[in-house]
Each structure stands twice: as structure tokens, then as C-alpha cells.
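Backbone-to-sequence.
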């Protein structure tokens, strides 16, 4: 049986990834500060409390889990709200709170996971299209996601050929059934993304044996769309 750790496994995207892996017969652990969905726990999901941006918490979570090998690490956790307010008002503490939850967390998790990983293992980092384009006042989030893109290609060179490292850059992913028709229509793919789309991308990257150091953009075509105010 293959083993996977998904950080942020209790969130929208994390739940979708955990469900997809469990359905495929994986043994899955969610590292999060919340328990995973009840139906997933009943299906075998292991919920481990972890503040992934804290060194001691990550070490404790791996010790509690007690696994001797790992086939997949998905670094998905991170503070979701991208807006940090005016840069002149952004405190160092708030900057670090965001960057620690995304970028430092991926470093800490990877550092602990690599000794458990052997030939054929994979790491998937959850970046964002915000690594490549921005709205105003999103510096901490954008920097975190841009750092994950760079961390991905650096790790792929350091850990290859045994461990492949890739990233996914989702665009708008939602589980909200109340979205407006224009929310969907603006996407060249005709709809907003769903958690299952990200989960499918994770599974693809796990099996894509010749792909490493890459970023898979998953945004329904929005980053390819030329948008000007008429």
C-alpha cells in the first residue's frame, strides 16, 4: 500500500486530494490543525494535528504518525486569504505568518519527509497562479507562492532522480454551488475549477515519470486570456 501525507488536508482542496487518494487505495495522513472530514476518517484517513509552519510541531507530527516510508508528500497547507492590506502597513509578524504557512511549511515538511522517501517517490507543492500575476495588496501571498515555484525546481535537481518534485498552480477553485453564470463563463474552459480537478492533477503528477521541476497551471485557461477594460 502506498503512503501519502497531505498538508492542509481538512481544507477544500486538501479534502479533495485526500478523498481521491483514499479512493485509489492509498494510506493517507492529513497534517492540519483541524480534523479531516468525518467520512474520510471513516474511510481510513489519519488526521494528525500539525502547525506546518512550526518546526517543533512538524517534528512531533512525524513522530506521532510513525510511518517508516512515504511515497507522496503534498505541500498544500497555507493561509488562504491573499490580501494583506497596504504594504506600508504590513507588519513583519503578519508577513511571516503568511510566508511560514506556505513556504517555510513546505521546507519543514520536505526536510522531514525526504528520509522516508525512496526511488519513485513524489513531492507536489501547491503554488498558485498568483505566483505569476497579482491583484493589489497581495505581496505576502504572492511571494510565498513564487517561492514555492522556485523551491520546486531547486528540489527537483537536488533530489532527482529518485524523488520527483513538481508543483500545481491552481486558479479559481471552488466548492460553491451558488456561483454566478458569469463566474463560470469568463473561463475559457467554461467553468470555475473544482477540488477534484486539483486531485486529478496530483494523481497525474504522481504517475508522470518523466516530469520533474515543473509547474502545472490549472486555471481553466485564465492566464492565457488577454483581459483589457473596454
Amino acid at each position: 500500500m502506498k503512503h501519502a501525507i497531505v498538508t492542509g488536508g481538512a481544507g477544500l482542496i486538501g479534502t479533495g486530494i485526500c478523498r481521491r487518494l483514499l479512493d485509489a487505495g492509498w494510506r493517507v495522513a492529513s497534517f492540519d490543525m483541524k480534523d479531516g472530514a468525518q467520512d474520510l476518517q471513516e474511510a481510513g484517513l489519519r488526521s494528525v494535528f500539525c502547525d506546518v509552519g512550526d518546526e517543533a510541531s512538524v517534528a512531533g507530527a512525524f513522530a506521532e504518525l510513525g510511518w517508516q516510508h512515504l511515497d507522496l508528500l503534498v505541500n498544500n497547507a497555507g493561509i488562504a486569504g491573499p490580501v494583506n492590506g497596504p504594504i506600508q502597513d504590513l507588519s513583519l509578524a503578519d508577513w511571516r505568518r503568511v510566508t511560514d504557512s506556505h513556504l517555510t511549511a513546505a521546507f519543514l515538511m520536505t526536510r522531514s519527509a525526504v528520509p522516508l522517501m525512496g526511488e519513485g517517490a513524489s513531492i507536489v507543492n501547491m503554488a498558485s497562479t498568483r505566483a505569476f500575476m497579482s491583484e493589489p495588496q497581495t505581496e505576502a501571498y504572492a511571494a510565498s507562492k513564487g517561492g514555492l515555484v522556485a523551491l520546486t525546481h531547486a528540489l527537483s535537481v537536488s533530489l532527482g532522480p529518485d524523488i520527483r518534485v513538481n508543483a500545481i498552480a491552481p486558479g479559481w477553485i471552488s466548492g460553491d454551488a451558488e456561483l454566478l453564470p458569469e463566474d463560470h463563463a469568463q473561463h475559457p474552459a467554461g467553468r470555475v475549477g473544482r477540488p477534484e480537478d486539483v486531485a486529478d492533477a496530483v494523481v497525474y503528477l504522481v504517475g508522470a515519470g518523466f516530469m520533474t521541476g515543473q509547474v502545472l497551471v490549472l486555471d481553466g485557461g485564465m492566464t492565457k486570456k488577454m483581459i483589457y477594460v473596454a
